Amino acid sequence: MPAMPDSPSYRGRFAPSPTGPLHFGSLTTALGSWLLARHAHGQWWVRVEDLDPPREIEGAAAGQLAALRAFGLHTDAPVESQSQRGALYQSAVDRLLDEGKAFLCQCSRSDLAAHDGIHHHCLGRGKRAGKAIRLRVPEGARISFVDGLQGSITQDLWRDVGDFVLKRSDGLWAYQLAVVVDDADQGMTDIVRGADLLDSTPRQILLQQALELTTPRYLHLPVITDAGGNKLSKSSAAIPVDALAPLPALHAAWRALGQTGLPGRAANDVASFLAIARTCFAPAQLPRSRSIPLAAVHNETDTNAV
Ligand code: GLU
């Protein structure tokens, strides 16, 4: 993988999948990652994670990028799309195959059902036409890391995850592979994202170790949940944020990030809101929980805020 020409002390990113419009949960994550990057005098990049065409909605990527611009969250580098980066993923997988760290697999989901979906060795039925590529997870593989917000996390990858997919049997790249390759290739030092991805992080660290890549710092922000306790999601048509009236949503996202004391209540445009927010931002106040109910954010304000 080519070394980046510069080595920033902080480079973060927001990497939405184009499965629907930007909603309040994704705005909160975007604002949180932007504030942390600006607080560290670092860079903030946007990347489009369009790896899974069947789940994507036409025009969603352009809509999300336009919404981010309307919220004043401007990328510091040209936006890259994962759909254009297959050659990088292929060379990473080729290397893992050559080194015997990855293997071709014909096991289907139903083959693995009796093993809780966990793959430890091929079951030899080989009925399926397409072959997936999996990372071999050695017995006893455990990964521990300290998350910037959620504290110490340990996962027994062999017991709880097993050999995981890098390239699907239908030829699509798996998120775990693409995100690791892209974060390294783009020189990311700090991964700030929703806590729903906390469980994926040990897989990504194992993959970084297999590819001899540096592990970035991780910080997982709480996700915003609906009345049923489910994460607001782009694909479940959570109410999109109104890019035409961005200030109320920015104020609500600020509060969802545990932030108070914004002297610029008078800020009447997005640029001045963000200029004030970046100076008032207190990372120590970020909530150390994995989720926050949307109702809790609403209750602190009028319900039209988001
Ligand atoms: N593409 C993922 C999403 O939209 C985020 C992946 C990441 O930040 O690592 O939820």
From TrEMBL:
It is an enzyme of class 6 (ligase). The keyword Zinc applies. ATP binds at K234. The keyword Translocase does not apply. A motif ('HIGH' region) lies at residues 16-26. A motif ('KMSKS' region) lies at residues 231-235. Its EC number is 6.1.1.-. Keywords: Aminoacyl-tRNA synthetase, ATP-binding, Ligase, Metal-binding, Nucleotide-binding, Protein biosynthesis, Zinc. L-glutamate binds at R13, F14, A15, P16, S17, E49, Y175, R193. SUPFAM superfamilies: Nucleotidylyl transferase. InterPro entries: Glu-Q_tRNA(Asp)_Synthase, Glu/Gln-tRNA-synth, Glu/Gln-tRNA-synth_Ib_cat-dom, GluQ/Sye, Rossmann-like_a/b/a_fold. Residues 11-115, 131-239 form the Glutamyl/glutaminyl-tRNA synthetase class Ib catalytic domain. HAMAP family: Glu_Q_tRNA_synth (MF_01428). Belongs to the class-I aminoacyl-tRNA synthetase family. GluQ subfamily. NCBIfam families: PRK05710.1-3, queuosine_YadB. Catalyzes the tRNA-independent activation of glutamate in presence of ATP and the subsequent transfer of glutamate onto a tRNA(Asp). Glutamate is transferred on the 2-amino-5-(4,5-dihydroxy-2-cyclopenten-1-yl) moiety of the queuosine in the wobble position of the QUC anticodon. This is Glutamyl-Q tRNA(Asp) synthetase. It comes from Pseudoxanthomonas gei. The gene is gluQ.
